Structures are given as structure tokens and as C-alpha cells.
Amino acid sequence: MGLMDHPNKAFIKRISSNDATISDGNMFMASVVPLRLKSDVSLHWKNPRPSSVHYCRPIMFQFAKESAELIRTTVKDIEEQISKIKLQECKLEKENILNVATSST
Predict the structure, then answer these.
(1) Number of folded domains in the chain?
(2) Which of 1, 6, 85, 87: CA 20 to 30 A from 67?
(3) How far apart are CA 60 and CA 30, in angstroms?
(4) What separation, in Å, do the N-terminal and C-terminal C-alpha atoms of the chain show?
(5) Integer Cα distance of 56 and 47 in angstroms
């Protein structure tokens, strides 16, 4: 059964607008995919299939036509946010230290 054939269509929100940019054909999404988790001394985890959507997390949806300028701007914004992430050490027990990522914003 497809989405439009579902008996309970109440959860489907329709967008009615004369603006040509507001359509599913102009939906732009940015997502992140973790590639590996490592420390200074070892590799703890490596994504076995980076092209898979299993670990893919969308971080932004926008009604906009995809363009080179939009991609450059989005990449720049995401890289700025990543650069603001700081690690803080949290002592859990006697010698166990957990590094936690925190954002300055």
C-alpha cells in the first residue's frame, strides 16, 4: 500500500502555494554520515558502508532549488558549526574518562 492509498491520511500535510520554489522537486537536504570514530592512539569504529543510509542523519531541509552556490554555502555553514564543537572530559570512575562533544552555541 502506498502512502497516498493509506486509509489514515490525516498525517499528510499539503502545502498550497503559488510560489514555484515550494515543491518536492525543490527540496534540498543536507545530511551527515560518520566515517570513523578514533582517538589519538587507535581506531575504535569504522563505518562499514559509508554510502548506506543506515547511519545517515539529515540535519537540514530547505525548499530551494539545488545549485552550486547553495551547496557551497551549506557546506561552509556546517563546517563552521563543526569547528565550534569542543571536547570536555568527564570523569566517570577512578580512571575512566569520557570525552563529550559540546557546542558553544
Answers:
(1) 1
(2) 85
(3) 5
(4) 43
(5) 11
pLDDT, one tens digit per residue, over 13-38 is 555 556 665 666 788 888 888 888 88
Q: Is residue 56 classed as helix, strand or coil in its secondary structure?
A: coil
CA dihedral (8, 12, 13, 17) positive or negative? negative
CB 80 within 8 A of CB 105: no
Tell me the three cell numbers of residue 89: 572530559
Domain with 82 in it: 3-103
Separation CA 100–CA 80 (nearest Å): 19
Spell out the residues 6+ positions from residue 40 whose beta carbon is closer than 8 angstroms to its own.
none
Position with higher pLDDT, 78 vs 96 = 78
39-57 per-position pLDDT tens digit: 778 888 899 998 888 888 8
Amino acid at 8: N
Structural contact between residues 37 and 44, judged by C-beta atoms closer than 8 angstroms: yes
Q: Which residues of 4-21 are buried (b: 16+ CB within 10 A; e: fewer)?
A: eeeeeeeeeeeeeeeeee
